[in-house]
Specification:
The protein is 56% helix and 3% strand. By secondary structure, the chain is mainly alpha-helical. The chain has a single domain, classed as M75 peptidase, HXXE motif (A middle domain of Talin 1). The strands form 2 sheets. The chain has a two-stranded antiparallel sheet. Strands 3-4 form a two-stranded antiparallel sheet. A hairpin with a 2-residue loop joins strand 1 and strand 2. Helix 10 runs antiparallel to helix 12 and helix 11 packs across helix 12. The radius of gyration is 22 Å and the shape is globular.
Length: 418
Amino acid sequence: MFKQICTLACILSLVGCSTGRQDSVSHSAILETYIAIAQAAYEDSLISARVLEDAIDAFLAEPNQTTLTYARNAWVAARVPYLQTEAFRFGNPVVDEWEGRVNSWPLDEGLIDYTAAFYGQESDNNYFYTANIIANELIDIGGISVDAAQITPQLLAETLHLIDGVESNVATGYHAIEFLLWGQDLNGTNPGAGNRPASDYSLSDCSNRNCDRRRDYLKAVTGLLVSDLEEMVYNWQPGGAAYVDLMQKGSEGGLATILTGMGSLAYGELAGERIRLGLLLNDPEEEHDCFSDNTHNSHYYDALGIKNVYMGSYERINGNLVQGPSLARLMELEAPDLAAVMLARIESTELAMDALLVEAAKGNTFDVLIASNNVAGEEVVSRVVDSLMEETRTIEDIIRALNLQNVSISGSESLGDL
């Protein structure tokens, strides 16, 4: 669960005022904390991805249910730090342009591998809907030829990913790995995740054919995730692209970037595209981690990432705390009433997200909650959406209180105006 919302005394401790009351917080100091958290969270994401890579190597060396479960658990664990970085996406173009390589969704899984009959054989919007690169060494569709004889990171990243300009042609990143580990979730809005057999990767007892190429794909896509995260870790170091871009904005522009990221993730992305849209359509294909049924955790850690940025505090995977001067402290000093409202909004979101976790522990994962006529499930999910929207309204109030310019919070067609 989230840590309890800080009291004033806790906020003071976050800025390290051990020698007395701190009466000011500079905007540049807040920006330094923001960068330090970004550096730590992306480093943790890389560390976790390397653990995932090791787990997948162990699985491929001896494919069985035990090693498959180990690899799946490593994937779930790798999501924890990464999802907390998503508050750095919006407002930082270096991150936003890169993000599609590692976290694009939803994906048309027929591009990658075999699918169940109900998946369908064609799509009006995607010629590569059932290309099945694992089963086909040469693809010629719609005038586009793909030589896939060798499945390499370069093939996935430079040729297949978003091929033909279709956003659902996702060939790389966490969700491609997720599909390869779990397979399709064939349960609809009933309980249960994907159940791909370990024998899909066996060279001696292969199920569903093409096990050698499936192994090549899983190995290549995991290595690519690691290299992409290495790039982003570098981007946040002094002299890196994300670091330089942010510093060039100055302290005021930096605050605008921080609040853009918080608001856009809370409102348009999380409340809208990742939660409300699935509820409106009653469609499990719209859930974020749809193969593994890990979506409740995805939403939880996205919300925690917003809190981290605002409070200026991030707990690393080794238990160490990265903390410093924060927006929370600045607002406590400059607009204490508004600061109290923001803490209450964060707490409301925390409680709503906790309810998602409680339901998931009972087997009512996100896809179950959004089922048609599931009144109780709709109430749980709607409470999350409502709390995120209220949090975003307060973020907008903070933007106005600080008189910041050039802040544009992303919306969603599935939501009304704030």
